[in-house]
Amino acid sequence: MKYLSFTKIVVTLFVVVLLFSAGLDVYGQHNNIDYKQWSRIAISTVKKEYPAAQLTDYKYVGRAEVTAEEAKDIFNIVVKEGNESFNVKAEVFFNPKDGKLITVQLERVAS
After folding, report:
1. Exposed, middle or buried: residue 23 (CB in 10 Å: 0-12, 13-18, 19+)?
2. Res 34: pLDDT
3. For residue 69, what are the contacts with CB-CB under 8 A and spacing of at least 6?
4. Is-contact 83 99, C-beta < 8 A?
5. Is the sign of the CA dihedral 21, 23, 28, 29 positive or negative?
6. Cβ atoms 46, 108 nearer than 8 A
7. Residue 55 — left, alpha, or beta (φ > 0 → left; ψ -120 to 50 → alpha)?
8. Helices in 1-111 by DSSP H: which ranges?
9. Residue 25: pLDDT over 50
10. Nearest to residue 92, comparing CAs of 53, 57, 66?
């Protein structure tokens, strides 16, 4: 009786862990695709704004919900133009329901 009970517990735990890890994998892939899409847009927008500069580093800051119809991904991008290096904050606004780009805002910030 104890053996049967222990087996049920182990099998149940295994199934729960398997389902949980599969769910995390799918969730991570979905967010990763969004993240990559918006990071490419942020980088290309900064390159257009500073065509002679080199982009030396960037960091994904995170996502914020603006409204039910609008969210934004925020990036900090390090730009080197000549001897000067500075940070640019890029905010990519999009509709989280249909995945369409709304706008991109750039702000040069103090290093």
Report:
1. exposed
2. 73
3. 95, 96, 97
4. no
5. positive
6. no
7. beta
8. 2-49
9. no
10. 66
Query: Which amino acid is it at 48?
Result: K
Please state, in angstroms and rounded to a whole number, the distance separating the CA atoms of residues 93 and 103. Answer: 5
- pTM value is 0.69
Q: Using CA atoms, how far apart are residues 111 and 106, in angstroms rounded to an integer?
A: 15
Look at the chain and count its residues.
111
What residue has token string 């249909």?
98
Residues forming a β-bridge with 108:
88
Q: What is the pLDDT confidence band of residue 74, given thresholds at 50, 70 and 90?
A: very high
For the record, the structure tokens of 44 come out as 């290309």
Structure-block tokens of residue 50: 């500073």
C-alpha to C-alpha distance for 44 and 93, rounded to whole angstroms: 15
- The SS3 of residue 69 is coil
